[in-house]
Amino acid sequence: MTFGQTEAILLVAYLVLWWLFYFGVKMRADQKYLQSDLAEDMRPCQGCIITQSAMMAAATLAIIYGAILMDWIGIKQ
After folding, report:
1. Could you tell me which of 13, 25, 16, 28 has the C-alpha nearest to residue 51?
2. By C-alpha distance, which of 50, 61, 52, 47 is closest to 17?
3. Which candidate, 25, 32, 74, 29, places its Cα nearest to that of 52?
4. Residues contacting residue 73 through CB under 8 Å, at least 6 positions apart
5. How far apart are CA 60 and CA 44, in angstroms?
6. Is the dihedral of CA 13, 17, 23, 26 positive or negative?
7. How many CB atoms lie within 10 A of CB 65?
8. In which element (H, E) is residue 29 found?
9. For helices 5-35 and 46-69, what crossing angle results, to 10°?
10. Residue 47: phi, psi to the nearest 5?
11. Exposed site from 8, 53, 64, 74, fewest CB < 10 Å?
12. pLDDT tens digits, 14-61
């Protein structure tokens, strides 16, 4: 099994999506925490934020990849 160009592109796309979702979710959680007068039970869980971002990135990539395979989105080289 070799690691080809397609896998490398998908890995980079996943990492970029994860990073974008992570910052979006983190900023939203921090904003909710600051608006709650710093209530300790509203403090964002770091592991939850990381997991939520990873799941959102994976779901987005799966939807895009499925749309490409079903020829709803065309990519020309």
Report:
1. 25
2. 61
3. 25
4. 64, 67
5. 23
6. negative
7. 13
8. helix 5-35
9. 140
10. -65, -35
11. 74
12. 889 888 888 888 888 877 777 776 666 666 777 888 888 888 888 888
